[in-house]
Write a structure and sequence with these properties.
By secondary structure, the chain is α/β, with parallel strands linked by helices. It contains 18 helices and 20 strands. The protein starts with a helix and ends in a 5-residue tail after the last strand.
């Protein structure tokens, strides 16, 4: 019987018009790091392994990767080989596959509560969130093997506990095809970027639409790891680097943790990787800036794994090996960057634990303090820069028979560019931290999502009616197409104070908690990944035109005409808008809507954000 995965793979090939006998394109980088040929650390791990613990990647020179069943089987073999390993099922995918994690602990601290009592650093490592980018899967299993079977890294377990997800996007991983990653140099066949619901899991950290992400959030918020690693493969231009990384290290992470990343972690990691023959750089791209090529980092938001960790005050390393390097080179890069990350932390594990806990304390201490600095919500790359030598490749152009124009080709010649790097952030959106938020009882979807994220909250015991701070929206624009299953929305928001009734059984969300910054990322509407921006609260933006009772144009127009006659000041405002906004002037419905919004027929909560900012808890 043909399996579902085979049927889907064949259908995908047919969809893209590819003959089944066609050989896939095999792109490659113009230059490999000289040390990649030996990949000494990777080779040593394979040589020391018992045969039954070798992965398909190791057996094939990393030219192939195995189905998920192999990762599960090797995980259980490691569990049987060592009392320090426990395999847990952490969730179920949309297609019914079990998601596993390996807990590695010398203390056999296989629960979050037991791990917390040890006082050891807890590290969460995940691979395959984009399942075609799978090079982290085998190396992380090799590292576990080297800890508990070969014992080369047994000493790590004296100071650390590991929670390891070998494949996050399990359903996507199982849809193997040689045509899924045309810009990637092996393995022979890989899975898909998206999950079975066509969702990108690395955009789902805040909205949590997928079963995989809901499972991950429960795991993360139970274990509260001190450090997180997310293994990816990037594509784009060719260059000398075999691996790049990104981390929150500016205003996008609480300062004690940010200082640890900048001062203690990054310099040591880069030094160790370079000493092993890797070419490593921050994640970003060269861009034209005033006629010169300069290097710019990318500014991320909490929809991504490493920034989700950051709003929980936890450093997270986004690893991006390069798709054009050989698959073995990429595996070597992942093995070494994880190994050196662990060893860098172990130089002073207490400094990491102190940094994240001080970040927790400092962030929670801002709650309700109007004199405290505002909290960063969004930013852009700064014009500020510092010197950098960027290791690119020279390129040339040739005329293409396909396009009829010149196309770029990279050459096997280093191009070491003396330039600058822009790796700082200018804040574009921020907010002061209130004492907490009130979420009205009707907004159950918001409450359930906050609970899923581990947010502390409590029900109110009585109704409240008093002046609260919230927002009013204007200039509301819905996206023209769906993105990740949502119709996103942009708007302008203005702080207002209004007398508002809050029913009993609503939810008080205090910000004197370590997840304060996460709560603000979700509930401050101007935050880039807020529930409002994602379109999870779109009914807020629906006006009361017609009063909800079916009042039609033939009735609403006389109301507007009467208001125009009775209120000269409103008429002046209307005529000014007509003169300044041609789109508005040409839209009969918008013109009627404007008058209705000024009237007493418009419900008082129309266009008002339902979540309330509280500066003093007086109930």
């Amino acid at each position: 019987m043909i399996s579902t995965s085979v049927i889907r793979t064949l259908s995908l090939l047919a969809f893209f018009g590819l003959a089944y006998a066609q050989d896939p394109i095999s792109p490659h980088s113009a230059i490999e790091p000289p040390a990649a040929k030996a990949a000494a650390s990777l080779a040593a791990s394979t040589k020391a392994s018992p045969p039954e613990l070798l992965t398909t990647g190791e057996k094939t020179g990393f030219n192939e990767t195995a189905p998920y069943a192999e990762a599960v089987e090797i995980a259980h073999r490691l569990e049987r080989a060592s009392r320090f390993v426990k395999v847990e099922t952490i969730g179920t995918t949309p297609e019914g596959r079990g998601m596993i994690a390996l807990i590695v602990s010398k203390d056999r601290a296989f629960t979050p509560e037991a791990a917390a009592k040890t006082g050891k650093v807890v590290m969460l490592i995940q691979s395959g969130i984009h399942a075609g980018e799978i090079e982290g899967k085998d190396p992380v299993l090799m590292l576990v093997r080297d800890m508990v079977v070969g014992k080369k890294y047994a000493a790590w377990l004296d100071h650390m506990i590991f929670v390891i997800i070998p494949v996050f996007n399990v359903d996507g991983h199982e849809y193997f095809s040689p045509f899924h990653r045309p810009s990637q140099n092996g393995p022979k066949s890989t899975g898909l970027r998206a999950n079975a619901q066509r969702m990108n899991l690395n955009r789902d950290y805040i909205k949590a639409d997928t079963p995989e992400m809901r499972a991950w959030l429960k795991l993360f918020n139970a274990w509260n790891p001190d450090f997180h690693i997310d293994n990816h493969v990037t594509d784009g231009s060719d260059f000398q680097y075999d691996v790049t990384w990104d981390m929150a290290r500016n205003q996008d992470i609480a300062e004690p943790a940010g200082a640890w990343v900048r001062d203690r972690f990054v310099p040591e990691l880069d030094k160790r990787m370079t000493a092993d023959g890797h070419m490593v750089a921050p994640y970003g791209a060269l861009r034209n800036a005033g006629g010169k090529r300069e290097f710019f980092m990318e500014v991320f938001s909490p929809r991504y794994s490493h920034l989700y960790s950051a709003v929980q005050n936890r450093p997270s390393l986004l690893v991006e090996s390069h798709s054009l390097k050989a698959a073995k080179t990429r595996a070597w890069a992942h093995y070494d960057i994880m190994r050196h990350t662990i060893e860098t932390i172990l130089l002073d594990p207490d400094s990491l634990r102190k940094a994240v806990r001080e970040a927790d304390r400092q962030m929670a201490a801002r709650a309700g303090d109007r004199a405290a600095a505002p909290v960063y919500l969004a930013g852009k790359v700064s014009d500020k820069s510092r010197p950098l030598v960027y290791h690119a490749l020279k390129s040339g152009q040739l005329r293409s028979e396909v396009t009829g124009s010149l196309v770029n080709r990279y050459l096997a010649e280093p191009d070491d560019i003396t330039t600058v790097i822009h790796d700082q952030i200018d804040t574009v959106s921020e907010a002061q931290m209130p004492l907490g938020y009130l979420v009205p009882s009707a907004w159950t979807s918001v409450v359930e999502l906050l609970k899923l994220h581990g947010v502390e909250m409590e029900k109110t015991g009585k109704p409240l009616e008093q002046e609260f701070e919230t927002y009013r929206f204007s200039n509301i624009k819905f996206a023209g197409a769906s993105n990740e299953g949502h119709v996103a929305v942009t708007y302008d928001s203005k702080t207002v104070k209004e007398k508002i009734f809050v029913p009993a059984g609503s939810w008080w969300v205090p910000l004197k908690q370590r997840r304060a910054r996460l709560v603000m990322a979700m509930l401050e509407p101007q935050a880039p990944d807020s529930l409002g921006r994602w379109g999870l609260m779109n009914s807020v933006f629906e006006t009361g035109f017609g009063g909800g009772g079916g009042v039609r144009e033939y009735l609403s127009e006389p109301i507007a005409r009467r208001m125009m006659a009775d209120n000269p000041e409103l008429r002046k405002q209307f005529e000014a808008k007509l003169a300044s906004d041609g789109t508005f002037a040409a839209d009969a419905q918008a013109r009627l809507q404007w008058w209705f919004q000024q009237s007493k027929y418009e419900p008082g909560d129309s266009g008002r954000y339902p979540i309330l900012r509280v500066w003093e808890k007086n109930w």
